Amino acid sequence: xxxxxxxxxxxxxxxxxxxxxxxxxxxxxxxxxxxxxxxxxxxxxxxxxxxxxxxxxxxxxxxxxxxxxxxxxxxxxxxxxxxxxxxxxxxxxxxxxxxxxxxxxxxxxxxxxxxxxxxxxxxxxxxxxxxxxxxxxxxxxxxxxxxxxxxxxxxxxxxxxxxxxxxxxxxxxxxxxxxxxxxxxxxxxxxxxxxxxxxxxxxxxxxxxxxxxxxxxxxxxxxxxxxxxxxxxxxxxxxxxxxxxxxxxxxxxxxxxxxxxxxxxxxxxxxxxxxxxxxxxx
Amino acid sequence: xxxxxxxxxxxxxxxxxxxxxxxxxxxxxxxxxxxxxxxxxxxxxxxxxxxxxxxxxxxxxxxxxxxxxxxxxxxxxxxxxxxxxxxxxxxxxxxxxxxxxxxxxxxxxxxxxxxxxxxxxxxxxxxxxxxxxxxxxxxxxxxxxxxxxxxxxxxxxxxxxxxxxxxxxxxxxxxxxxxxxxxxxxxxxxxxxxxxxxxxxxxxxxxxxxxxxxxxxxxxxxxxxxxxxxxxxxxxxxxxxxxxxxxx
Lengths: 282, 248
Known about the structure:
The complex is a heterodimer.
Chain A: E1 4-15, E2 18-29, E3 33-37, H1 44-52, E4 59-64, H2 74-79, E5 80-83, H3 95-103, H4 112-118, H5 134-146, E6 152-156, H6 164-179, E7 183-188, H7 191-197, E8 200-205, E9 208-213, H8 215-220, E10 225-231, E11 234-240, H9 243-257, E12 262-267, H10 271-280
Parallel strand pairs in A: 3-7, 3-8, 5-6, 6-7
Antiparallel strand pairs in A: 1-2, 1-4, 8-9, 10-11, 10-12
Helix pairs in contact in A: 3-4
Chain B: H1 2-17, H2 19-39, E1 43-44, E2 47-48, H3 49-79, H4 82-87, H5 93-123, H6 131-155, H7 159-177, H8 188-194, H9 198-211, H10 220-240
Antiparallel strand pairs in B: 1-2
Helix pairs in contact in B: 1-5, 2-3, 2-5, 3-5, 3-6, 3-7, 3-9, 5-6, 6-9, 6-10, 7-9, 9-10
C-alpha cells in the first residue's frame, strides 16, 4: 500500500449561511486516479479549490503531498499541476511559447516538445492559441499543467463541453497520466467518465460524501436487479432483490399462457442508476 | 531574478504580439501627436505650441499606457482565468506583478523616446536639456498611473466593459488636464475639476522640466499630489485586487 498523496479529515466550508462542505474525509493514494462526482453545487469545486490552495477551509485537517495547501508554499506549487474549469490563457502566443513560459516557472520542467507531443498538439506547436479549437485549448491547459512535471494533477471537469471523439482523446491522455505515475484528482458529472478513468470515486451530495469506493463497488451497493420485458406492447420494469423468484414466476406464467416474454432483459443497475439514486436522496 | 527576467520577456512578447495593445496603447498617442501637431502653431505662454503639445502627449501617453493599458489587460487576464492559473504555479505573486509593471514602464519609456524623436524630426521641438530629470519625472508619473491602473482593474467587474470604463475616465481626464492643449480658456468649473486630477500635476511636472528647464524639486506640490494619487491607487488595489474571475 503506497502513501497517501492527499488526506482529508472532517473538512468544512461555509459561504455565509450556505454550508458548501459539511464535514468530508477521504484519502487518495499516490498514483491513484480519484474522481469526485456529484451534481452542480454539491461541493466538488470547493473541495478541489481548497486542495489546490485557492480557498481556505473553515475547519478540518488536510495534507496534500505533505503540505498544507492554504499556506501556499512555493514547494507545494512546484509539485502540483492545475487544470481549471475554464481558462483563456495567452491568445496571441503560440502553443510552444506558452509552454516555454510556463516551463520557466518550475525548477525542473519537462521538455516542452515532449509535453506538446503527449497532449497531442505537435501539429499545432507553432499555432497561435486563439486559433485552437475548444478541445485543443483544453489540451493546452493540460499540457501547461504537466510542464512542471507535477506529482499531483487536479482536473476540474476536464471534458465538459467536449464532443464524444474529443472526450475519447482526453480520456486517453488522462490514462497516460496514470502510466506516468501521477496522482490525479478529477471532478466530473459524467458517470461513464468516472467509470472509465477512476480507480475510486467519491459521490458528493449537498456537501457530504454519500458513497466512496471503486466504480465496481459503487455499482455493487445497489442490490436490486432490473427485469424488463414487453407485455401487450407495454414496457414492464420490475426491480427486485429476488430476481430468481421473480424470473421464475414470470417465465412460468408466460409458458403456461403460451406467450413469449418479448424483449426480456435482466440487468444489474449501471453506475449511473446508482448515482442518480444516491444524489436524489434516499 | 531569473524568474523576473523570464516573466518580463514573457510580458514583452505578449504586449507586442497583441495587435490591439500595440496600436491603441503604443501607436495611438503618437498618432494624436502627429494630428494635433499639424494644426498647432505659434506659441503658447511663450513656448512653441508644439512643445506644449508634446509635453501634454507625454502625459497622455503615461496615463494611456500605465493606467488604461495596464488596467484593461489585468481585467482581461483576471476574467479569463490567467491570473488564477498563474497563482497555482511557483511564480511568486510579487515577481509576476513586478514584471507586469516593469514591462508597462518599458513600453512607455520607448513611447516617450519616440514622441521626443518624432517631435524633433517633424515639428522641430527641442531635445530636453535635463534629459535625466525628464526621464525620472516620466518614470515617476508612469509609476503613479500604474498604481491607479491596478486600482481601476480591481474595481472593474467584467472584461467586456473594461475598455469603455477605462476610457470614460481617461479621455475626459486628458482633456481637463491639458494633454490636448492648454486649459486656460476652459470654464472655471472644468478647470477646477482638472485641478484635482493626477494627470494635471504630471503635465505640470513635465512642463516644468521640459519647457521651463527647471529641476523637478521646484515642483514638490505637484509631485506630492501625483504620488498621493498613486498611493491611493495602491491602497485600493491592496484591498480589492483579486486573482480570480469576478463575473464567473
